[in-house]
Amino acid sequence: MPPPPPTLLSPHLVPTLLSADASIYPSPLTLPQLTSWITAAPSSSLQYLTPDNSLCGVVWDITPDMFADDGGVHVWHVERYPPWKREWGRFAEVVQRDLRLSSRRWSALCVTKEGME
């Protein structure tokens, strides 16, 4: 069974995601700053929804200036949520494919170990 296709991250999720990150990984980033990054690169800020519209994963906060000359990229946030099904594969690998990072070095911030599994 293939994983759900990604769609653009809904702007109303950004404050909740920022709050969740800040509670675990304090950061000086502000909501306006994060929103501007997502606006600058909307196709790199994705959400994954189950067929019944439950959020099962997000990838967000990629800015155009974060793409390094050596081909590396940093994704600020990748997180898998409980509705993600194991038969869809490892969430990190799905994100890597959907962002076309297969041939590039990349790193990501996850607030939980399960976020990348």
Give a quick summary of the entry.
This protein is of the alpha+beta class and 117 residues long.
Q: Which features does this protein show?
A:
117 residues, alpha+beta, 4-stranded antiparallel sheet, two-stranded parallel sheet, 6 strands, 20% strand
Described by strand count, sense and barrel closure, the largest sheet is: 4 strands, antiparallel
Span of the ends, CA to CA: 17 Å
What overall form do the CA principal axes indicate? globular
- Order of helix and strand elements from N to C terminus: EHHEEEEHE
**Number of distinct beta strands:** 6
Task: Please bin the fraction of helical residues.
Answer: 10-25%
Overall pLDDT level: 76
Structural class: alpha+beta
Strand content: 15-25%
Based on CA atoms alone, the radius of gyration comes out at 14 Å
Q: Total number of helical segments?
A: 3
Poorly predicted spans: 63-67
Q: Strand order across the biggest sheet?
A: 1-2-3-5
